[in-house]
Design brief:
mainly beta, three-stranded antiparallel sheet
């Protein structure tokens, strides 16, 4: 399961993480920092929904 940005469609996949944001592969969404922003459009974590 991933988490989809409702603004631009970027998909955060816990299996791959987000190396550019310093989030290691295998990091569950609940452990992603609250100040995480979408790397594509810049909105906050609250704009993501489970897919």
């Amino acid at each position: 399961m991933g988490y989809l940005c409702q603004v631009c469609g970027y998909l955060y996949d816990p299996e791959t993480g987000d190396a550019d944001a310093g989030i290691a592969p295998g990091t569950p969404w609940d452990d992603v920092p609250d100040d995480f922003v979408c790397p594509v459009c810049g909105v906050g974590k609250d704009q993501f929904e489970a897919e």
